[in-house]
Structure formats: structure tokens, C-alpha cells
Amino acid sequence: MNSKEHLVIVGNGMAPGRLLEHLLELAPDRYKITIFNAEPRVNYNRLMLSPVLSGDKQYEDIITHDDQWYQWHGIELHKATPINSIDVQEKCVTTAAGSVHSYDKLVIATGSSPIVIPLPGHDLSGVMVYRDLDDVEAMLQAASKVAKAVVIGGGLLGLEAAAGLHEQGMQVSVVHLADHLMEKQLDSAAGYLLAQSMKAKGIDIYTSANTSEITGEESVAGVTLDDGTHIPAQLVVMAVGIRPSTALAESAGLAVNRGVLVDDQMRTSDKSVYGLGECVEHRGVCYGLVAPLYDMAKELALELTGQSARYKGSVVSTKLKVSGIDLFSAGDFLADENGGGKGGGKGSGKNEEEIVVRDATMGVYKRLVVKENQITGIVLYGDTSDSAWFLDLLRKKEDIERMRPTLVFGQAYQGGAQLDPTAAVAALADSAEICGCNGVCKSAVVNSINNGNQTLDSIRSKTKASASCGSCTGLVEQLLKLTLGDQYQSAAVAPMCQCTQLGHADVRRLIKARKLKSINAVMQALEWQSSCGCAKCRPALNYYLVCDWPEEYEDDYQSRFINERVHANIQANSTFSVVPRMWGGVTSSSELRAIADVVDKYNVPMVKVTGGQRIDMLGVKKDQLPAVWHDLGKAGFISGHAYAKGLRTVKTCVGKQWCRFGTQDSTGLGIRLEKYLWGSWTPAKVKLGVSGCPRNCAEATCKDIGVICVDSGFDLHFAGAAGLDVKGTELLGHVTDEDAVEEHVSALLQMYREQGHYLERIYKWAKRVGIDEIRRQIMEDSAMRTAYAARFSQSQSIAQFDPWAERASGQVQTHEFGARKLKSVEYVA
Amino acid sequence: MTMSATKWVEVCHIHDIPARGAIRVEFGNHTIAIFRTFDNTVRALEDHCPHKGGALSAGIVHDDCVTCPLHNWVISLESGKALGEDVGRVNKYAVRVRNEKVFLETPTTVALSVA
Ligand code: SRM
Ligand SMILES: Cc1cc2nc3c(=O)[nH]c(=O)nc-3n(C[C@H](O)[C@H](O)[C@H](O)COP(=O)(O)OP(=O)(O)OC[C@H]3O[C@@H](n4cnc5c(N)ncnc54)[C@H](O)[C@@H]3O)c2cc1C
Ligand code: SF4
Ligand code: FES
Prior knowledge:
The complex is a heterodimer of chains A (about 850) and B (about 120).
Chain A: E1 5-10, H1 14-26, E2 31-36, E3 43-44, H2 49-54, E4 63-65, H3 67-72, E5 76-78, E6 83-87, E7 92-95, E8 100-102, E9 105-108, E10 112-114, E11 127-129, H4 133-145, E12 148-152, H5 156-167, E13 171-175, H6 188-201, E14 204-206, E15 211-216, E16 220-225, E17 230-232, E18 235-238, E19 242-244, H7 247-251, E20 260-262, E21 273-275, E22 280-282, H8 290-304, E23 317-319, E24 327-331, E25 353-359, E26 364-371, E27 374-381, H9 387-395, H10 404-407, H11 421-426, E28 433-435, E29 440-441, H12 442-450, H13 456-463, H14 473-484, H15 504-513, H16 519-525, H17 537-548, H18 562-566, E30 569-570, E31 576-578, H19 589-601, E32 606-609, E33 615-620, H20 625-634, E34 647-652, H21 666-677, E35 686-691, E36 705-710, E37 713-718, E38 721-722, E39 726-727, E40 730-735, H22 738-755, H23 762-769, H24 771-780, H25 782-799, H26 803-808, E41 820-827
Helix pairs in contact in A: 1-8, 6-16, 12-14, 15-17, 21-22, 22-25
Chain B: E1 8-13, E2 21-27, E3 30-36, E4 42-46, E5 60-62, E6 65-67, E7 74-76, E8 92-93, E9 95-98, E10 101-105, E11 110-114
Antiparallel strand pairs in B: 1-10, 2-3, 3-4, 4-8, 5-6, 6-7, 9-10
Bound molecules: siroheme, flavin-adenine dinucleotide, iron/sulfur cluster and FE2/S2 (inorganic) cluster.
Siroheme binds near residues 610 and 725 of chain A.
């Protein structure tokens, strides 16, 4: 017996469990084996802790190797025996109790430990982590006594803990720092679907949420977030990440970075000591999932039996073990180590492409990232049946060019000749469902076409096919082509952009009809063909959502054009121009003085009077903007929104107060309108003019909305233009007092806000919907008018804040303005 | 953490860059735009559009591309090349994310630190 080499293993987790299996198979008698484990139990399947927590399994069900197994193989297992130190010179280990054991070869497999953020209150009773069976038992005990739990961390572990506690009858909230759940494994489209599924289970999800404090006296009372939100809870689970357990190796003098450093043979810096599992760092990567650890275990077994071993790193994939949720990701979707390769900037010049399919009814989202005809990344949500096949293609770096058109539909669709889309539709059975929303089958659509409905619109109104989410529009068009042949002229609805088949009108309609309240919700429900839209559709969607759900939707700044993001106009040289509001074009000596001071203080290269009756400071550097705004703000200025798809200027003339022809106070009315309308977002920019008499010195008759004062009151005009097109206004109607002007103008503006397509100025919108129809709704239908005006007023109640003051405070969107400065410290050869 | 020699310099935490957005990093005469895409890939390009020098950091980020704010060229974040009909290419820099920290490969042989 003593002639055998002595193999000592520290840690008895998943990785050594697998190592022993390989080793016993390769060379059952080669080593005398001793294992020390801090945990007071045999080897069990850590992955299955979540089913134990949810009550689906018992501890006994998840044991991998029981006591008998160790006895049978002659392995000495010391339970509840942590190793305190290693002496690599003397080749021995010392247990916490002080007994010393020598080794010939040592394997360090200490795994990792959960990170505990040292928040105020982190040491209260009731704050737990999630790593081993003791933690599960503690959580189960708590769940039987108390009602509310908060899980900090919306990654894999946090969500499994949340689902488990929820199964135990607790009311659970998840607090997550990043903007979407599982951000290391999922893109935000899949993260959105995941949040929807968790919410549907009854679990509250807080994203972009930073915990500032865990409250309570002795035991936990709740969790407070940065924004002041307080979530009551008697149990808090911290699942914010893991850290490789390297202390033992480090104190033994072994080379350690983030993990214990190992080479391709799993050797540490000492030739008799190996590292294995989550505690190691291999080629710069620390792993947190079992598949790579199994690969390591296999190689280490070869190495320990004197065969050539070479661990080259692993491609990891993720699944979430929460019942009812199918999710899979692999490859270049990780922000951290495991995906580090993608950030390496080693681009070959050939660009990545993505293939995206979404099925709104089934809640499916699939995205493949393809580079040089190879799959490099996979995200699947809702239907993961092809995950193994995709992963295999990814790992083998298979050339997918031939399968490209049907690749994303999965393995079942491969092989055989390429189907052209019309042939594919022709091949569908008569009973095949075309429109999922309205349950219309192929034969119903074909019959309707044969009965004379030969346009998309008439099929929509007769059969309801493609009348709801519109995502089957393509299929219906194929059927029209198939049935009518060359006779069919495809409807000329221009899609919003390349990400969708739908035009602006359909998208606006569906956002309201289906109560879509986020960009992700729109993209999923309307089956966007890209993962996160493009520079054309995103600003449009953001506007539609801002307009339609003013109180619920959170403005997405990353979907706004730079000017609206930083509230200034970008110039040819990437400096900015600053145009403060000068109500109705009226100013004062103190305002002018403040502008002069700003120009001097910040060396503004040019000051110009604009065509919109105000003053433009041009050439301000981006990082100067907040300070410039601060100074202007002190003088009472707010943003002039010269950059906005929103209210720009209200030009006025001097009017009755000074002008010998003036009939009304046009200056005062212009200012009143500007003060009421500013801050509103609109499909395109909106400019007003108010002239004191028909001589029209404020050029009101070429503005989006114009008011001409006359003796008997006010003529209201709209739909003028003087830019790319020049067009005189149309007469909307006549009113007799200023209150009526305000009501009619705001109603008109709201009607345009609700119906306009993004970037469509009022004159183009009016041409599309009809001047008469607008006149009817605003002038004749007083119920409609007051409803529009009320919705406008409602929306304004939260829209009127000065974006400059917000940013000058240094609290909002700070990353936009400053640049981080790198300075040189040292030269290397 | 110890870094291999002095080649990589830590710039920020990954959450300091908005998803589908960018921050700017300056050194000497260079400005580098560091982007974070919607799937959390981090990329770095010279902040200078190959067309007429627009600040790419001010563009709209979608998929693995940025649309320049000045005249809407679409630049691949991965390769730095203009896509579609447009022709041109901007310098790219190696970045990597370790433990949620973003590191930039120093663009010259000068080793840098964040001021
Ligand atoms: C500053 C100013 C010129 C000036 O020095 O006077 C100006 C400057 C610009 N105009 Fe203008 N327009 C200015 C008054 C006008 C006017 C005159 C007016 O408002 O009475 C018009 C014609 C009236 C109209 O809008 O119909 C005008 C019609 C345009 C157009 C054409 C719009 C159209 O739909 O036809 C554009 C292009 C666009 O918006 O896409 C444009 C776009 C621009 C942009 C924003 C170009 C751009 O996208 O960067 C310029 C920004 C410069 C800057 O950073 O400040 N500007 N622009 C004027 C600012 C007014 C203000 O106080 O806010
Ligand atoms: C709840 C949960 C669910 C998971 N789900 C998945 C999943 O679905 N898919 C997946 O791939 N991965 C999952 N993981 C991760 C997976 O469990 C780990 O990657 C894996 O267990 C790591 O194996 P290991 O052997 O390196 O370390 P561990 O399994 O952590 O084992 C390390 C052992 O070493 C012991 N030890 C530490 N220091 C000493 C010492 N000084 N002396 C003696 N003993 C010591 C510890 O007590 C521990 O028992 C999950 C993890 C958890 C906690
Ligand atoms: S007319 Fe307007 S858009 Fe054209 S250069 Fe002058 S300011 Fe710029
Ligand atoms: S400068 Fe970028 S597109 Fe013109």
C-alpha cells in the first residue's frame, strides 16, 4: 500500500468528483487517495441545489458519491476538515485541527466563495448567500417562518434563488444593478423576455437598481435602494457573484492572480501541485460553470496518469434552471472573462452579422451572431430545442454558409434544396395558420383573394389576417403573389427601416392597441428582425413611446440623436451651439449682459442672431456645456430646444403695444404660447409665429402654426413651411380670445403629436390626413378638441423641466460631457 | 489586480458606459471612444469618423455598429470600417473586460494610467 504515490485533494466539490471518476477508470490502483472537505458531507451535485430549494428534490436525490462509494474505492474522505496550510517544500498539508498529512501530488480544488458586498446591514441576521447545502437549509428554514424576501443580484444564481423562494410561498423581489437581468449571458432583448416571465410568475424585478442599505435592528427589515425605494423583507439573499477561493494557495506561495494560475497541464507554479475547478485561472480565464471544470478534470486525470494532457479552455453555455423558462446562451455574449476574446479588438475586418427571429405569440427570441460564416454567439429564449445543435456548430467552427437562410429555424429545416419563400408558402397545407393573432388559415386567405380581395388592405378587412400585429404581412403578400401571379402589385407601404416590414402608421397603431410600453416590448411583439434596432427606428420608437405613455415610459436617451441627448446642436467640428430661450424674441439688458459674460468667460468663438429671433453661441466644447448652462441658468435662461424634435421658436412682432397697425398683443400672446408649449416632444420640429396684423412681420404664414391677429380676434393658421419646401399656411379657423387660441393650438399640436410619423413636419402630416379632417376635429368637434387639449396638458405637466439645469447640476447623464484623461506615466521599451 | 507588464490600463467600470452608448477617453491629441453594445461587448475606436471627423462617441449605437452623428455613416465597431456604400476605416484599439473593469491597450508604447 505504501508503495503507492499519495494523492491529496483539497476540496470535494463538483470538479474533484469528476476527476476521481476519470482517474479510477484510467488507473484504479495507481494512487492512494485522500480528500479533505470543509463541508460536512459527501460529494453532491451543487447544480441541483435549486430544485432542493424549490422543493422538487431532496438532498438524498442529489448525492453523486455516497460514503459507500468512497469505501469501495479505498478513498479516504475527511468531511468537515478544512485544510489550513500547505507546505510545498515539505510536501504536506495541515488541517484546521492541526493534523499533518504528506502528499506526493496535491490537487487544490477549493472552488469559489460568494461575494458579500459590505453594505450597511450586510451582517444582520437574515442576510444569506447561496452556495452550499447549508445555505439552502437556512433559506428553507427562513421561508417557513417569514413572508418576504429580496434577492440582490439578477444573475443565474439570484434568479434561481428567487424562483425557489417563490415556490416556497414567499413574496420575492429581485434587485439588479445592471439594466437587464443576466446581462453577462443575455442581450437586452432576451433579458426583457426573462423579466416578463419572472414577473408573470409573481416575482418583482427591479433593474438598474443599486442597493444602498439593508435595514433592520438585529435582523433584516428590508432593503433600501439608491433612489429611496424601500422594499420590506425578512430574508435577503446576496447573489452578486463569486470569487475564486485562492487564500490557501496564496499563503502557500503559489502564483495567484484572480484565480490560482495553472498551465495547460493544470499545473500550478509548483510542479507537484495542481489546480482544478472554479478556483483556478487558465489562460486568463476563471470559469463559473461546470462544463469547463469537467473538461479540466478529464485532462488532469490524463496528466496524473502520465498521459499527454492539454486543456485549451472551454466555450461556455448557460441555461437557467427555473421551471417554465427556456433560455440558452453561448459564445460571445459575456461581458466578463469568458467573453473577453470578443473585446480583444482583433477584428479581421469582415463584419459580424446577426440573424434574428422573433415569434411574438410564442414569446420566442433567437439570435445568432455569425462571423465569416461561423456561428460565434447564440442567444435563445422561449425555444431552446436547437441549443445543442447550434452549440455544436459553434464549437466545431462549422461553415454555415449553405444553411444560412434557414439556419436560425434549426436543425429540422436543414438539408434538401433551398426553398424560395413563395415555394415555401405554396408548400404549406391549406389548414396552416397564417395569422397567429386572429387564427386565419391559408385557405381562408386564398379563398378571400379568389373572391376578389386583391390587396393587402382588403384582405385585412375581410379576413383579419395581418390586421393585428402585422408580422404575417409578408406571408399574406406571398399568398397574393402566389394566387394572382404577375397581376399582384405589392402595396407600397414603406417599412420604417430594414429592421421591420411595418410602416410608421402600423407601428404607431400597434403601440397603442397592444399597450407596448418599452422599445424591447415593441421589438418583440412586432417581431423586429434585428436585436436592438437601428439609428432610424430607435429614435422613432422612442418618440412614439414618450408621446403615447407620458407617465409610464422612461425616455431612452441612447435612442435619441446626439443633439437631443446632450441638449445642444452638434457642429461640423464636433463642438456645440447653445441657444437659450428668449421668450417671443424679447430680451433685456441683464440677459444680454449674462450672454456677454458667458461668451467672454468660455471664449465662445461666435455669437449670432438666429433666424428664429434669439441668440446662438457657437463653438462651445462638449465638456464646457454644463458650466455654460450653469451660468446661463443663474441669469434665468432655460434651454431653447434649438436641437429638438419639439417646440423650437415662437416668433413674434411688436404688436399693438408699439406698432401703429397692431390689433392685438402679439408679443404677449407669442410669449404665452411659448411658455405653454415648451418642453413638448413632437414628431418633427415645430415653429410658431404670431403677427400683430395681416402685414405679418413675424412671417406667421410660413410656420408650422401661425396666428394672425385681426381686429375681431385671431386667425389660426397651420401647415406652412419655409425650409426644404416653401409653402404658405392653410387657414384653420378664427377664434375671438387668447384662451381659445391656446386651447386650439394645443389641441392641434396634440393631434399632430399622436398621429405624425417621426420626422414628418406638420405640413406633411396635414397632407396625409387631410386639411379638412384636421379642421373638423379641431374647429367643429369641440369634444375632440377639448380631449386633445386635455391630453396635451397632462403630458406637459411632466414634460416641462429644464434639461440644462438638470445637467448643470452634474447629476444627469454625466458620462456624455466629460472625457476620461489618460496620462503617460512610464515608457516601456 | 496585477496586470501583464504595463500594457493594459484600467479605464472604468463597465457600468460607467451606458449600454448602447459610449464614453470618451483622451490622451495627448487622441480621443478614443469606448462603446458598450446592447449585449455588453466593449469596443474602442478612435473618436473620429473616417468621413469628416465626426465624433463617433456621439453616435447612436445599434447591434455592433455606430451611426455617425454628422452624416449618418455606419461604422462597424468590430473592424472600424464604414459599412454599406461608404468607404473608410478608423483606428481601433484593443479593449478587454476583466471582472467588470474595462481595460484599454495602450495605443503607443507609452504606458498610461487614468488621471
Ligand atoms: C441657427 C439657425 C440659422 C441661423 O443662424 O439663423 C439654424 C440652424 C440650423 N438649422 Fe435651420 N436654423 C435656423 C432657422 C431656420 C429657419 C428660419 C425660422 O425658423 O424662421 C428655417 C426655415 C423655416 C422652417 O423650419 O420651415 C430653417 C430650416 C431648417 C431646415 C429645413 C426644415 C424643413 O423641414 O424643411 C433644416 C433641416 C432639418 O431640420 O432637417 C434646418 C436645420 C438646421 C440645423 C439644425 C442643421 C443641423 O441639423 O445641424 C442648423 C443647426 C445650427 C446650429 O447648431 O445652431 N433648418 N432653419 C436658425 C435657428 C433658429 C432658432 O433660433 O432656433
Ligand atoms: C445554486 C447553484 C446552482 C448552480 N447551477 C449551475 C448550473 O446550472 N450550471 C453550471 O454549469 N454551474 C452551476 N453552478 C456552478 C457550479 O456548481 C460550480 O461551477 C461548481 O460546483 C464548481 O465546482 P468546484 O469543484 O470547482 O467547486 P465547489 O463545488 O465549490 O467545491 C469546492 C469545495 O471545496 C471546499 N473547500 C474550500 N476550501 C477548502 C479548504 N481549505 N479545505 C477543504 N475544503 C475546502 C468547499 O467547502 C467546497 O465544498 C451552480 C452553483 C450553485 C451554487
Ligand atoms: S441653411 Fe441652415 S442647415 Fe444650411 S448651412 Fe445654414 S444653418 Fe446649416
Ligand atoms: S463625419 Fe461621420 S458621417 Fe460625416
